Every structure is written in C-alpha cells, then in structure tokens.
Predict the 3D structure of the following.
Amino acid sequence: MDVISSRRNPLIKSAAALRESARERREREEFLCEGARLCRDAAESGLLIRACFFTDRAQDRYREYLEPVLRAAKKAYMIEEPVAALLSDTKSPQGVFCLCAWPSGSEAGPGGPCLVLENIQDPGNLGTILRTAEALGRFRVFLLGDCCDPLSPKALRASMGAAFRLWPGSGGTARELLGRLRAEGYGIYGAVPAKTAVPVTEMDFSRGLHGVVIGNEGRGLTEETAGLCDGLVTIPMGGRAESLNAAAAATVLMWELSRKGGTAESWSI
Amino acid sequence: MDVISSRRNPLIKSAAALRESARERREREEFLCEGARLCRDAAESGLLIRACFFTDRAQDRYREYLEPVLRAAKKAYMIEEPVAALLSDTKSPQGVFCLCAWPSGSEAGPGGPCLVLENIQDPGNLGTILRTAEALGRFRVFLLGDCCDPLSPKALRASMGAAFRLWPGSGGTARELLGRLRAEGYGIYGAVPAKTAVPVTEMDFSRGLHGVVIGNEGRGLTEETAGLCDGLVTIPMGGRAESLNAAAAATVLMWELSRKGGTAESWSI
C-alpha cells in the first residue's frame, strides 16, 4: 500500500481542495468525507469511493469501521498524521477520509411527503434537517435559491450520512419546481411566522400529497416563493414570536406531515 | 465615559474569564453576553447588567440595540477593537458585550409541561432546545447530571436569549427531581429509541401533567434515570433507527406535549 507523507502530494492537495470549496465539489462532482463512522456509512450507502486515506493509528483504532470502506474503495493510501491534519475539518482528526463521487440520487421516490428548502445558509441546520427528513420517513427534499452545500464537512457531520441516501434535488426556479410538484398532485405550503397563515394544527395532511417550504434562517421565505405556494402554514407558539430556528420549525412541520400522512402505515420503531 | 484600550485591564481580564470558563461563571454567578441583539434581549428580560462594553464602531452601527442596554447597565465602558477581539467568541465581533448576573429564575411556573435534560453535552443542542421550549409554550426545564452550561457563548447564541427567561433548574439527583415532580402530580416519560417503548403517537397528553426526559446525544438516558421514569416513550421513525439528534427528538416530544396539553388554549400565533 502506498504511504503519503507529504502535504504537497497532488492527490492530497486535490482532496484538501474538496474539503474547503463548495465550488470545487460542484465542478468535480466529488466530495471529501471525514470520520470512521461517516466513511463506513458512505460505503454502506453504496457511494462510489474513489480513494480512502487513513493513518496508522486509525487502522488500529477503527478497524471495524475501515473494513467495509477498504472493500468498497477503488484505492487506499496510508497517510501520516500531518497529512491527516491538513485534510481534517476538526481539531482532533480520527484519521479516516474518503474521496467520494457525488451521491447518484435520492432513494425517496414520488408519492411521499415533500420538503423544499430555500436559501438555508447554516450547514448545521441543513445537515440536521436532512437527518430528520430521513428519520421521519424519507421525505423528498429539494433545494431552492442559494442554499449551502449538503456535502460540506459541517453539513455532512450534522446529517450523519443522511445526505448520502436522501440527496436533495436542486436547480431551477421556485416557479418551475413548485409547478412540477403541483402537476404531480402536491399541495405545497409555505412556512411563515405570521398570524395570517393557517396553524399547522388546523391542517389535514391525512389525504393527498403535501409538502412544505422552509425559508432562510433570518429572512424567511422570499415573497416570490411565498406567493407561488398553495397556502401559508404557521406553527402556533406560546412564547415569543419567531423564536423557533429553521431546523426546529422544519422538524415540527415534517413531523406533522409524516405523522398524519401516507407514511404512517410503514412506520417501524 | 471610561475608555479601555488595554487587554490587560483587570475588568477585561475578568470578563474574558467568564467567556472561557463554565467554572468561573458558576463560582461568580455571572456571565458574559455578546452581540447587539442578545445584549438588548438581556436588558429587556430584566437581567442585572453589571457592565456594558462597546466599541466606537458598534456605537454607530447598533445604536438602537445599545440604548436599552445602556439604560439598564450599572456601568458602561468604551473599548478599543483589540479588546473586543479578546472578549469575543466569534471571528467578526459586533463589539457589544454585557457582564451580567445569573438569571434569577424561570418565568415558567408550575402546572405547565416539563422537560428534563440529562447529560446534554453539545451547547448548540442545549441552546436550541431552550429556544424551542420557550417558543412552544414555556416549558419548565431541568438539567440533570453533567449537562453543558446554558450560559456558554455557543449555548447563548443558539438559545437566542431563551436562557434569560427560561433559566433551567439544576442540582440534585434524578431520584430527587423525579420524586419531586411526581409529588406535584407529573407523569414523567423517558425518551428512548427502543421498540419496547410506547410510541408518542399512542400517548395521550391531553389530561394531567406530563414531562419527558431527554438523554445524552450519544449514549441516551442513563439506566438509573430510565428506571425512575413512569414509562418510556419513543418517536416512530420510517427511516434508519436512532437517527434523530437530541434537539430534533426534543422538538418532536415538546411539540406533542404542548400541542395536546394544557397550554393549547393559550396559544397565539
């Protein structure tokens, strides 16, 4: 097995660039995955792993996690600790990394509940929302506008690998996306903290296809997108107004959509 | 007004120590609050503000926010930019800080729904949970075991000031706390990702007093605490098991408690 000890090794520089830059990830359709558990998750989710990098220490400590990764990886390299530090996004790297091709598509097929995210800027929020969307019943997820990258190191950590299986669709305008969903039979509701919207507790999601749109953490939905929705929905609050963060609001709305919705029968615990 | 230009000024060193150390905050019963919005929130929540520090630039940029803070603060100091950098927990400080006494108590009285957190370690999770607990209806919140500090800079940012008004009770063992709540008439349910627990969708929170206990992010509830609960509750999931993070699980359970519970009538949107 090749050992890489130089931080100037071209393959390492190329992997480090993927960690740093969303543009690099987008143009090359690749990303860097860090951590024993997340790398194993990538392998078990069927991702194409172009290369695996691991330190000597990681080989001992994370043997069980590494095995399926090494079976799946096209190539494997031993790296020295300073190289691991360069690739890592954390202060105490575990020393396990995979260079992966983009996920090929979402496992969530048509017919399930739907979640549209517009201009979500915090990678922790985006990752958490994807994790919850997978846990509560395989939502179809779409990104609109200027969302952050679900394959950034921070978003990946928060998603716990959900992005590998629930790869969100993106591209196109709000008008195009909502039009397409409406043609499939979806009713789409924009989430707003406004008295004029319908409380989610008064909505009936038990029949038909439904989806919600969550907007930016500070500014909420754009006026254009709100105007394109079939209606506006809000979460009744007892405390101060506008005090749920985007991930918490998304959790409540996804819970209501999936609890009453078509996925209830397939629930297992 | 006094101007502080030295990072070695004793008052500044004392304030910086509050930012860094949970022990310092606990022993002195003080904390450091950063940011224009959070400082205004501290003032408007009636906290005792022993000192306010702000830069010249902040005075221009955040005048509206600073006004109520300066009215409430016992003392105010202009600080130079390098001093602001020392006090700040962020890369781009706004240049507004308050040295505050601990919140004096929670506004949430007896009779409402109750949330107990055990060994929550991530300050972002703790802050988010407090914010949601306030938004959904003034939960009574208690901390058990080795929870992180709700007054750390990161927890404060995530709580958006909820900790000022929903100051969680702490101290004492699980046996003591759950015994006390039971004596008040509460039924307390431990949240676990286990097939043997009752799905929250099958529970009826519409009568009586109820509370849930949420455990550590990785390890869940301690066996001891789980054994002390009146029952165990779980969140039915359609996707992979154990895939909700602690804050998302807390959000779903708080929503179920407050949606059906006694606070429903007082909801406003």
In short: The radius of gyration of chain A is 20 Å. The longest strand of chain A covers residues 49-54. Chain A touches chain B through 40 residues (CB under 8 Å).
